[in-house]
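Quick entry, no commentary yet.
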Amino acid sequence: MKKHAIALGIALCSLLGAAAQAATVTVSPSTNSVMTGDTFTLDLKISGLGSEIVSVFDLNVYFNPAMLKATGYSLGGGLGGPWFDLSAIAGDNFDLFAFSELVDPTDPATDDALAALQTPGGFTMISLSFEAIGTGVSMVDFGLGANERDIVGRNAQFLNVQYQGACVAVNDPRNGNNACNTVPEPATYGLAGLALLGAFAPAALRRRRESAKA
């Protein structure tokens, strides 16, 4: 039984290690409070890249169009070099698609050329501009459909990425008490579950062994 407990511990550590190594894309700042008529910007930042690069991204970022109006976007300087941008704005989302003109998927050396120009470890990929048009609370978050959460790194391979959205509370300048209530991201729930499993698994195994003896 001790061997099984050790094996379970090793498996849990491996899962936690894999999650920790994933890059993270966040909408920053994560909570915002604005008034109707205000204009503001949110940044899509990537961190935890290590030696990886961003050579292509295909992301959809959704918001509530009754409260927020998309007014524009701009690529981040940390991406490095020239980029071909095919992004567009729809009524309730930014459809963000761009790729580096330096990278040739058939030539790995071009990955190093882009890496030399990108900010190491992480940077702002793109900035999104909004106007607050209606009161309430709107999440600004990534889509879950096909090609709505894709980032490509070296060797034309998709990166392992975790995503965290943001919340925008919009109030009337004369009154209002709309506010963002922070809740754990789904990834946080998953890590907490693994941690709890690691903490309680030895006790559960011990109880099972004692029951078997009885």
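second:
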Amino acid sequence: MSQAVIIHGPQGCGKSRNGDALKVAFNAQRVVDGWVPGEPLQPGDLALTNAEPTLPSDAVWVSFDKAMLNVA
């Protein structure tokens, strides 16, 4: 994964609980749990947040529900 990916969803939906599986599914280098918009992300980061998507962004925003479709 060359671009950072931000997984967003409401608090308690399972982002942190599924962080390791999402990391594998998105081929990420590291998980940044509790990410806040404005904090820097590196290529290969998988950020987990309950923030709403903001534009413009260098990262790809994916809803938690859609991200889980990639988890085997």
